[in-house]
Fold this protein.
Amino acid sequence: MPLQQLRESDGPIEAQLPSHMQRIKFEKLQLSALCSNQYVVGTILVKFTPHESGTGEKIFKMVLEESTAQQSVSNLATINTFIFGKLVIDCEHALKQGDTVVLTKFQVSTSPSASKDGRHALQLELSEETGTTVYAYAKSVKESAASSIVHSPIIQRPKIGMQDYTYVPLNQIKDGVTVNVYGVVKFFKPPYRSKGTDFCSTVTIVDASNGRLNCVLFNGNSDLLPKIYKVGDVVRFHRIKIQEFNKELQAVNAAGFSALTFDGTPGASLKPRTSSKSYQFTTTDQLTVEELRRWANVNLSIHKPTVKLSEVKPAEYFDLTCQLIAKAVVDHSSVLLKVWDGTKCPHTLWQIPVDMNTLEGDPADIHRLCKLSADVLVYDNHVGAANSLKVGTYVTIHNIHTKFATLNTEKPSRSLDTAPGMEFHLHGGTSYGRGITVLPEDCSDVQQLRQSLESALLADQDSLGDLTLLEILNTSSRSSAPERATATHVERCHQESATVLTAHQHIKSTSIQEVMDQTPPQKYRIRAKMVNYQPQALHQSVKLYCPKCHSLQEIPCDDHIDNLLQDAYSPDSMAVAPDSQSPDALWYQTATWEAEGQRHRRITVHFVKSDEAQRIPERSTILVEGVTLNELYRLSKRFGSIIPITSRTKCLTLNELSIPFLIQDRKWHYGCRHCSHPQPMDALQSLSQTGPWESSVIAKILGIQLLRYVFVMRFTLDDGSGSLDALLWDEAERFFGISATDVVVDDALQEKLTRIMDTLCPPRTSKDDCPWLECCIKSYYVNEGSEQKTHYQIFDTVVAGAEDF
DNA sequence: GATTAGGCTTCG
């Protein structure tokens, strides 16, 4: 019960109260404080007769005098105290004038009568919702209602002690009464700082009686105002006072005001949002809330569909539920909020140029999410709220205004510095409920938002992945900085994993058994050991991939290339006599000689003319005919670009495409046999003076579809709950930190690859001694004949410390 | 030591 007895004979007050409770003097009371760990001690100076309010509950007013204070004339020495509801019945007889009382968990609000009664400017309010306990402090043991009550926690409040709350339908509201109401929010302004001392929130509610009520609510503590997140929420207000304003009835919060707010979705959770320490919520209340939800959803069209960034149009106002990525003070009257909601705005986004040093937020996140984030400029009275937001917070920004940036040539604006695009403003003022609401993680809108954010990260993993790669590269190049190296090291030790994730670190791991129980497509984080991998011969793990026809081809082996080259220069296959000199062309110079010891073989080299080529052979381009594989290797050490050709037709053309069409910087480039349409060498003339002699440019001119080198491996992963084969497909030197193109021609890189694989999956070692791997994997279906099979692929995962192998 | 706001779009 909330009335308990303390006895002087049991020792001083502080010794009889829980140790965390602190006494607060009347003069130290503050509006904004939530007094849950504080108590006041006072002597009952005046005790008024309890009366019943319009809500049907009893109100009991007392005047307390600070008992231990020096007798003072200060008006801070006496304070009006109001007790509401069931507690009145307990207190009205048990407490006598002159008694000392100890009050806990009271609500502090402004006293409307202070100017008249000369008492404290604040008043104490004790109701069921504040979770108050009143302690009567008796000088001696005496018979009283309270003396029979032993200490018991208030949460064990017996059912018989329930309060009778009555709720007035909104069409029956009368002027001058204090009432309790239920309603559906039709309009609201989230709490904002008024020009006076309090926070203010205005709320318009409606109900099935077709009544409608505008409520103006003040409190020095914004937490005590209703926690409304959107139109359609259901509210329950206790103790609002009805008054007339502009010939209409309006409500203001009365003493003891408390609010519960519920999600307006039928069937949603019935857990209210409130700062009340305790509240009564019966099955009747549940029915009322559910009934209001249903009524509103059928009869009201107030549930605006939520607008995502992907749906915004210029020149509209909307509420955006999003996560704060970064913020920056722009000037004295505006703050930039960088936010995202997981969707991509189809319009060019306005980027507010700010100094990176003034931008608060994780640079990696800012960079990674730049294509998904919107810059919202927040003005004037909202600056304070924006400044107090923590990065990472989920918020609803109410009434964002979108418009296209207009280029004003007379008055240069910020937007001139960057490409114009869609602007997002939160203008000053509170019209239309403009403001920012912080959403807690457990609310349903945040749950949905988080899903959207997560799937955005996973869905566009290719494009985002490239950015992540850039970050990894940047990070490793900066890792000479000791603090970063330390941080990376600590992270690795902590993870105890031979691989690390480049994103999605906040996702929980899923067991392999669970992964295999679910139907594709899905994305997961797993923690497992590599018990096997294929191909064991690492040189077979690099393949050639055609991005056009998606075919995967083996790299032609040396013997095969050598045979093809021999076929190309054998006299039988030559349409043009080998000794017929190819004339010099305008764009190249030709040299021909007989291969040593091989009379029938003539080697021809066409040197492409350019100023640079004459100075630096390493940067020159040559077309070669009649060479062996060995000679190709040797030439590739000397010349920058080598194009093996044949002159079996009247013009110079490429060989069969199993022979590399270009060897550049010792890298062998192949073309797709299905997707290429080789052109005669004359096409290269246009490049001869201008360049650039880049593989992609040469390929395009010669009609060649370039094949890419990729690592393709199959890892068998096991976490104890099960095992699966996951494909590793790496064409961007991500996973190993090694380029698949380079590894083919670089012995040192091949040795490094072997060391990495021996670490990930140590040979001749029991599973216990294998290291753990953190991996992101995705599942997908593959048609195999008439069957659909589930496959898995690794993504956003890299070998930890690959640069150190 | 009483006031704040009392829905109703924008300077940027």
Remarks:
- Residues 129 and 279 of chain A are 5 Å apart (CA to CA).
- Confidence is low (pLDDT under 50) at residues 143-159, 408-418, 462-495, 575-580 of chain A.
